Amino acid sequence: MTIMYAGEQLMTGDDIADALLTLSVALAQTGSASTVEIPTVRGDGTHSTVKVLVGPASQIVAMPVESSHEELRDPHLVAHLSALTAELRPGQNYRAPTSTETPDWLEDL
């Protein structure tokens, strides 16, 4: 999945992008912000890590992307982002979606 952030395209895994967006919403709802490091893959296939600031003013868009590179997966990072989200939403049981889950709305297409 490609994340559009501050005019840049950042290619990362679907689960990572979903967890980042969900954390961003939770931070915005509480009026707070945080920096998060996520793994990315460049066009030439090399891996890197970027630090993004997420919160109320974040304008992040995630888009599916076709790539010849293997999808980035980091279950520990996804769990960490999910835990941060859960801390911001006490009383709600949040579980990050996995890329193998199909959203209900897709069945209507």
Descriptive account of the structure:
- This protein is of the alpha+beta class and 109 residues long.
- It has one domain (2-99).
- The protein has helices at 14-30, 75-88; strands at residues 2-5, 8-11, 34-41, 47-54, 60-63.
- The protein has a 3-stranded antiparallel β-sheet, covered by helices on one side.
- The radius of gyration is 14 Å and the shape is globular.
- The mean pLDDT is 85.
Please give the domain count: 1
Structural category is: alpha+beta
Distance between the termini: 21 Å
Report the sheet with the most strands, covering strand number, pairing sense and barrel closure: 3 strands, antiparallel
Helix content: 25-40%
Short description:
The protein has 109 residues and is of the alpha+beta class.
Keywords summarizing the entry:
two-stranded antiparallel ribbon, 26% strand, globular, 2 helices, three-stranded antiparallel β-sheet, 109 residues, alpha+beta
Topology of this protein?
Layout: E1 2-5, E2 8-11, H1 14-30, E3 34-41, E4 47-54, E5 60-63, H2 75-88
Helix pairs in contact: 1-2
